[in-house]
Amino acid sequence: MYTDDLRDYCLAKPAVTEGLPFGEDTLVFKVGEKIFLLTGIGSNTFNVKCDPELAVELREKHSEVLPGYHMNKKHWNTVQMDGGLTNKQLHEMIDHSYDLILKSLPKKLQQEIGANA
């Protein structure tokens, strides 16, 4: 997976927006104004939110999954895209992050996003 593929995958999700709030080098994807994924432009890594227990499990299982760089390491993982992980595994991590953020949004907003999906 490359940055363009990552971008396309994220933007295909309901109500996702992208921006550069931290400067021209860091692409941020949000749902409901909350970040679910960050990546450096042209980088081979991305940061995703993760359930704390699953975060540890993924780090132990895959050398490509590390504690979130510049993030709360309990809740965020940094994932290397050019390692041994399949696109399916990468997509699952992105989906998990998106779902965690979506579930944290107010119920009304969740319903609006679901109705527009």
List the helices and strands and how they pair.
Elements: H1 3-11, E1 16-19, E2 26-31, E3 34-40, E4 45-49, H2 52-61, E5 65-67, E6 76-80, H3 87-104, H4 107-116
Antiparallel strand pairs: 1-2, 2-3, 3-4, 4-6, 5-6
GO molecular function, one term: DNA binding
InterPro entries: YjbR (IPR007351), YjbR-like_sf (IPR038056), YjbR/MT2646/Rv2570-like (IPR058532)
Pfam families: YjbR
Could you characterize what this model shows?
This protein is an alpha+beta fold and 117 residues long. The chain has helices at 3-11, 52-61, 87-104, 107-116; strands at residues 16-19, 26-31, 34-40, 45-49, 65-67, 76-80. The chain has one domain (3-107): Aspartate Aminotransferase, domain 1. 40% of the residues lie in helices and 26% in strands. The two termini are 24 Å apart. The mean pLDDT is 92.
How would you summarize what this structure contains?
The protein is of the alpha+beta class.
